[in-house]
Amino acid sequence: MEKKPELSLREEKTARRRSLIIEAAATLFILKGFHQTGMRDIAGQADISLGNLYNHFKGKHEIIAAISEIEAAEMEPLLSHLENAPDSGDDALMEFAQAYFAVCSSPANAALSAEIVAEIFRNPDIGSVFSGTRKRLIGAVERYLPDNYSNRTATAGLVLDLIERAGQSAVGTSDALQSDIKTALLEVIGRLVERS
Known about the structure:
Layout: H1 9-32, H2 39-46, H3 50-56, H4 60-84, H5 90-104, H6 107-122, H7 124-142, H8 152-170, H9 175-192
């Protein structure tokens, strides 16, 4: 295993600044919406100059790309577990569904996802930055579907859509209702992957 080279102080400072900018942008996208948030707003939220912001990111599209990289890194443990579990291990899919539901039902994540999806309709190029993780998720879920589905890739995409939408529906609900939504979701997924 190769050892990663240590970052210089300058590189560490740059990485911290970029992280601060991304966090500030995500906060504003959640509060105001992607379209209503300007680069000046992001600079103010990050407490840096507009020029300094442009030294790190040329525009909101680059910030969205950075958010997609963070999303991919955060999804990596869930995705790797699902990809590396035995094909017959439906438990891995159910564990993934529960964990992904928890991610999707986080109020901040749900709000940011809604903003990004809305912006994808206005600017399809933004969608391309999230497509890599989505393709991997679909491929991993597809492994658990019975062979008798005519289009397993589309079905896997619908399973992910179902988890995401159920998670969003659970935002702001009581713990009891959130538990009921999760239970119903898992029952539906369980039936989808039943092998006859």
